[in-house]
Amino acid sequence: MNEMKSIQREILLGFWKIHILHHAAEGPVVGQWMLQELRRHGYDLSPGTLYPILHRMEQLGWLRCEGDHPKGSRTRKEYSLTVKGQEILTLLRKQVEELYEEVILEEKELEKQP
Fold this sequence. Notes:
The protein has 4 helices and 3 strands, in the order αβααββα. The protein is α+β, with helices and mostly antiparallel strands and 114 residues long.
């Protein structure tokens, strides 16, 4: 992986976590659906990237994982937002909004100036 790809991946890791928290706030998510959702937004993640992120977010207490066995012996895990995860999402939404206003909206205003 070249240096720019590595830097981009490091930054996107935070975006992916925010996206996961957002969807878990709407209801439980499963890994396969989350992969499809992130891909729909242009993020090319593999299961080998996503599942460690979900596991880490569970370890941090942001998500709660529950599994069932709908297809034989294979466990399907559902990830739900915890109270701590909701607090973090609330904080991050404010920070993302501020960042968006500064990075995107201010740039658009500069482009409009003659």
